[in-house]
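Need fresh eyes. Consider my entry:
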Amino acid sequence: MRVYHTGFDVIAAPDIRRGRANADFGQGFYLSDSEEFSRRWARERRGMTTYLNAYELDISGLRVKHLPRGEEWFRYIFDNRRFAPDSLAEYDVIIGAIAPDTIYDTWGILTSGLIDDNTALGALMLGGEYTQVVIKSEKAASALTFLGARELKGEEIAAWRATVREEERAYQSALSELLGSVSDILN
């Protein structure tokens, strides 16, 4: 499978321990199977170069967990964000939907405990679905082949960020409508 990672470094040999333990799928090296999405995720930072790293991942012989949007997916994200022990630690690779609140700015309310789990799950199901591929073990890291990196230029990054801003507005509008209806029910 072809996978991508965007950042400020050329990363030929990813370190699976650099990712945050409280990220959606726990500690690991986060990739996307979509080059387009990876470009959308690109940022600019003064004095730094932005790279799109490309890899090939051979998943044969690896323990792979697929997590489509749903209750198990939500519970895994919810637990990881609260530093619970990784309930899927035996897997080498986890492939599943990216929680939209990590893509779009929602102020962390969806898994904060401020709203009930059913409402939070409903909110995380809003909008488009993008996939993340998380390398969780050294075995999986060794199955990842670096294909190269391409520098992304400012105009290209700005155009993709504009696309994300439009999606973000639509997501926040749908989220506001959902949370408003929940508020109306509670009042």
Summary: The chain has a mean pLDDT of 88. Helices lie at 35-41, 71-81, 100-103, 117-124, 138-142, 154-186.
